[in-house]
Amino acid sequence: MKKFLAGLALAAAVLAPAATWAQDPAASAAATAAPAAASAVDAAPAAAAASAPAEAASAAAPAPVPNKGDTAWMMLSTLLVILMTVPGLALFYGGLVRSKNMLSVLMQVMVGFSLIVVLWFLYGYSFAFTEGNKFIGGTDRLFMKGIWDNVAGTFATGATFSKGVPMYEMVFAAFQATFAGITACLIIGAFAERIKFSAVLAFLTLWFTFSYLPIAHMVWFWMGPDAYTAKEVADAMNEKAGMIWQWGALDFAGGTVVHINAAVAGLVGAYMVGKRVGYGKEQFTPHSLTLTMVGASLLWVGWFGFNAGSALEANGFAALAFINTFGATAAAVLAWCVGEALLKGKASMLGAASGAVAGLVAITPAAGNVGIGGALVIGIVAGFACLWGVSGLKKMLRADDSLDVFGVHGIGGIVGALLTGVFASPNLGGPSAMGDWVTATMITPADFSIAGQVWIQTKAVIVTILWSGIVSLVAYKLVDMTIGLRVTEEEEREGLDISSHGETAYHK
User: Fold this and answer.
1) Can you list the pairs that 288-292 forms with residues at least 24 positions away whose Cβ atoms lie under 8 Å?
2) pLDDT at 153
3) Which of 212, 362, 405, 440 lies most in the core, judged by the most C-beta atoms within 10 Å?
4) Minimal CA–CA distance to 307: which of 71, 76, 20?
């Protein structure tokens, strides 16, 4: 149980933490700064040599309790991520499809999100954030058992990124549930307007189980700062973490776990489901850019909980993630508009909304890992890169990725993940990474290797692409062989609102 509390709450480093200062540092500690973690722990023997009276006094001291301010901030962050999905993502996607498919997208997002949240509490949380092996967690929290003692009336706690600062485990579990839910829903945009509703739910169940959970565990699970009590145990604690965490990859809030993971699944789906009837011959224009703009705005607001909440505390790193989310997004909007004006002669509302999402995606892995200047650069690069992703790259791939999931989330996620390795450097205004969790010592500017960190980030990106790609391919095939992926041509022409749900978004 102790391992679970240390790993689970500390694993809180998970989705939000994957790139948080702690997570980043922790990761770098395990991979790039192993020597520092070993040498800087010379003070550990002092703790082990504590006198009997000191031990007795320590044992008598009350256990630390979660801070009320941190608890309130994490609950608010959880609500903000729900706002991102329902209604934010639903309206953003809904406005981009044709009016005859508006309700189908809203249904897929709302019901898909609800499905993943239920699966998360049944088994997802346990397999993502409890100790197992370097690829997947264990069964300690199946059905959320042990999350609280209803006899004693006490609540289980887990770690944050600060030693001796716990958080309520159920709050962390709820926060991470929203990450899993929105990640699955992002995929929906790639095959919108032609897939069976039942196929969506079946695929999301398989993909969540065999792609999201393992990648979340590999990137975010670790034993937490309180487990690093002495130099002698540091290596053992690192070995219990997820594989990508052990490498030292920095992913503050989900560049790999959320965006690249979902984008690859979406691209595979675009190929597997096939192109929409009339694609390339008919105009497929958004039916309501007004709703798309409202959705993008809600995404931007909710994303502050997504990124800043990943710090797991209401502290300086949460503030850093907050301002970086603000600045990078604004920079990406401007970059996309400039690029669009140069290419087409005019900047569009669709482009501005897409630029905002591109900036939000790219800053996600870097939010608490880079300085403000680095965040602005990431936003600018993401704006131009994702504009190319939805135009030039899309033509090269020849896939009907309906709402440009790969062009924005895939390219934006990759750009953000790689540039995190650059701008995390304290020499470029970044906060560096944790070099030693025993003494909570950061890697010094002289010892931080940009090339080394970028290589680690690259490996994390490659593993995520391959893992999600293979799982997605198998999952789509299984669904196609059993219930079928696609609606009939007649149903598609009629519109999924009527053919799949028997209702319409707009009455004439």
Assistant:
1) 288/94, 288/95, 288/99, 288/102, 289/95, 289/349, 289/350, 289/353, 290/95, 291/91, 291/92, 291/94, 291/95, 292/91, 292/92, 292/94, 292/95, 292/96, 292/349, 292/350, 292/353
2) 81
3) 362
4) 20
Q: Which residues of 156-172 are buried (b: 16+ CB within 10 A; e: fewer)?
A: bbbbbbbbebbbbbbbb
* Sequence-separated (6 or more) residues with CB below 8 Å from residue 66: 157, 166, 167, 168, 171
Q: What is the C-alpha to C-alpha distance for residues 70 and 160, in angstroms, rounded to an integer?
A: 10
| Residue 354 DSSP SS3 | helix
Tokens of 286: 């958004």
> What is the pTM assigned to this prediction?
0.88
H or E segment to which residue 191 belongs:
none
The three-state DSSP-derived secondary structure of 432-489 is CCEEECCCCEECCCCCCCHHHHHHHHHHHHHHHHHHHHHHHHHHHHHHHHHCCCECCH
Residue 222: which of 159, 280, 267 has the closest Cα?
Answer: 159
Measured from the Cβ of residue 341, the count of other Cβ atoms closer than 10 Å reads: 13
Q: Which two tokens stand for residue 312?
A: 């797991």
The number of angstroms, rounded, from the C-alpha of 213 to the middle of its chain's C-alpha atoms is 12
Angstrom distances, CA of residue 343 to CA of 197, 242, 346: 37, 43, 8
CA proximity to 327, closest of 369, 385, 367, 387: 367
Contact between 194 and 486 (Cβ < 8 Å): yes
Whether the bond between 365 and the residue before it is cis, its omega within 30 degrees of 0, is no
- Distance, in Å, from the CA atom of 187 to the CA atom of 463, rounded to the nearest integer, reads 19
Which amino acid, 207?
W
What is d(CA 391, CA 98) in angstroms, rounded to the nearest whole number? 20
Q: Residue 189: what are its φ and ψ, rounded to 5°?
A: -65, -25
The whole-angstrom separation of Cα 331 and Cα 251 is: 21
Q: Is residue 231 a contact partner of residue 42, using CB atoms and an 8 Å limit?
A: yes
Residues of the chain with pLDDT under 70: 1-61
In angstroms, what CA-CA distances link 32 with 75, 93, 162, 230, 288? 34, 40, 21, 19, 48
Backbone angles phi, psi at 67, to 5 degrees: -75, 135
Do residues 173 and 161 make contact, with C-beta atoms less than 8 angstroms apart? no
**The total number of residues written for the chain in this structure:** 508
Q: Using one digit for the tens of pLDDT, what is the confidence trace for 244-276?
A: 999 999 999 999 999 999 999 999 999 999 999
Compute the C-alpha angle 169/175/179, nearest 5°. 135
Would you say 13 and 413 are in contact if contact means Cβ atoms under 8 Å apart? Answer: no
**Per-residue pLDDT, 59:** 52
